[in-house]
Specification:
Leucine-rich Repeat Variant, about 0% strand
């Protein structure tokens, strides 16, 4: 392909004697964008380049290759006090992309450097790795008002990513006493930590029309993450409040209501009360509305399990049979997903037909698979397995099928996904699909998956390694699986 040929040309240049640092910088940068693993050794050699800008670019791009073989070199640079702070900081950032447990102790150590640039990237990296043993030091940095503000903001984000409940008191204090980006970060962290005590205040932010729109969106997302039913009615009331209705035009000239649409995305995590029904129906039927708002209204209505909502969606579909045909329209795709969300099981066979139609448009088939997944009906197992196992299908379809199977979640599904992962892992194929299956097995929390996950743990690709380690932690609680590996 074109990228492979381009990569070969760039690698040949790095073998030359050219000492033009800006050209070498550009070549390393381009290779980092392509991130073909065959470039790793050549980029590693550039770590010895005398040029500061070339070394810095090489360090910064190594994380893009997701190759665990580069971890030790990056740790060495991180620990080299004679190296520039910017290059050491880029080493921390690349280690954060690789998410390898060998870096944890070294990243913790450099938190004491007092150099904000290094601290910033080290904290971000520790959050990416979910390093629970770093929580106490990150909390100390965060609680120190003399710490650089960007570092403190990174601490909040990292603590949310790690998900350790020890962080709740400090995050809650920031949430209640500070403003700006760190306040918004605290909102997100409270959602990640599932801090139930914050629910009334988060609801208050969502209900405050004078609050920053970003903060309101983050608060709604946090409520969805926590999943407490108290949020359902509050979000439902936001969806029907006329004062939430503020029209903007997007780049295509379509009428949008961005904050309202984002509230729908959060509200769909709940079963919504029937007080939304008539307003959503009005928006669906209103010819003045453009399809983004109408589609969002369909999504919201699908989360109301009232007879009014169910009957309306059924009649809406029956009176518009073309919406259930492959027509590559955003409306069609929204409708077939809504069928699943609303539990319209009577349309199951039609959705299965759509998802199996190999002549259909990719996005239409994907929407149908997602709709089938939302139904979570075990009778669709074999059809979904057939899509997953068919190597002629687009990878997106196979990933959607795996996700849909995960929602069925029975022993038959788990065994089939274990078999598929083992086959893909042995062949070292379809990384994105492997990652998806690993995450689904983690959610299933079945000890049957331990053996195949241990195999994935040995993968030289850092994403596969970390995701398998994280899955093992969720299943067995064994230090993110790291104690099971043979370090490269």
């Amino acid at each position: 392909g074109g990228t492979a040929a381009t990569s070969d040309i760039l690698l040949e240049f790095l073998k030359s004697d050219s000492d033009d640092e800006w050209v070498r910088w550009a070549v390393v940068d381009a290779l980092g964008a392509i991130h073909s693993k065959k470039a790793v050794d050549s980029v590693v050699k550039e770590l010895e380049n005398e040029s500061y800008i070339v070394r810095k670019k090489a360090v910064a791009t190594l994380g893009n290759y997701k190759s665990r073989q580069t971890v030790e070199q990056l740790i060495e640079i991180l620990n080299d006090s004679s190296e520039s702070k910017s290059i050491r900081a880029r080493a921390a950032a690349s280690l954060g992309k690789l998410r390898d447990e060998r870096a944890v102790d070294h990243l913790i150590k450099v938190l004491d450097t007092g150099i904000a640039e290094i601290q910033l990237h080290a904290v971000n990296a520790l959050g990416s790795i979910k390093a629970a043993n770093a929580v106490s030091l990150i909390l100390a940095l965060l609680d120190n008002l003399l710490t650089d503000q960007l570092v403190r903001e990174a601490c909040v984000n990292a603590l949310g990513s790690i998900g350790d409940k020890r962080a709740e008191p400090v995050i809650s204090k920031i949430f209640r006493s500070e403003s700006g980006d760190i306040f918004k970060g605290a909102i997100k962290a409270l959602g990640s930590l599932k801090t139930i005590e914050a629910i009334p205040e988060l609801i208050g932010i969502v209900e405050d029309l004078d609050a920053d729109s970003g903060a309101r969106k983050f608060a709604a997302t946090a409520l969805a993450s926590i999943g407490d039913d108290r949020a359902a009615e509050a979000l439902a009331k936001r969806l029907i409040d006329q004062f939430e209705y503020k029209i903007d035009l997007d780049v295509d000239g379509l009428k949008r209501n961005y904050t309202w649409e984002s509230l729908v995305l959060s509200a769909k995590s709940f079963e919504l009360p029937n007080l939304i029904d008539q307003k959503m129906i009005d928006r669906i039927e209103d010819p003045w509305e453009d399809y983004p708002v109408q589609n969002a209204a369909i999504v919201a209505l699908s989360r109301s399990k009232s007879k009014t909502a169910t009957d309306y969606l059924m009649s809406y579909l029956e009176s518009r049979p073309m919406l259930l045909e492959n027509d590559n329209s955003v409306r069609h795709q929204a409708v077939v997903r809504a069928i699943g969300e609303s539990g319209q099981i009577q349309f199951k066979d039609k959705l299965v037909e759509l998802m199996k139609d190999k002549s259909g448009v990719l996005d239409d088939r994907r929407a149908a698979i997602q709709g089938v997944g939302a139904l979570a009906d075990s009778s669709t197992f074999q059809d979904l397995i057939d899509i997953l196992n068919d190597e002629t299908n687009a990878i997106e379809l196979r990933q959607d099928a795996a996700t849909a199977l995960g929602k069925i979640g029975n022993d038959q599904v788990v065994s089939s996904l274990i078999g598929e992962l083992d086959k893909l892992q042995t062949a070292n194929k379809k990384k994105a699909l492997r990652l998806n299956i690993i995450r689904i097995l983690a959610d299933a929390k079945s000890e049957k998956a331990v053996i195949v996950l241990e195999k994935a743990l040995e993968d030289p690709d850092s994403d596969v390694h970390f995701t398998a380690a994280d899955a093992l932690f969720q299943i067995a609680g064994d230090g993110y699986g790291y104690s099971r590996i043979n370090t490269l």
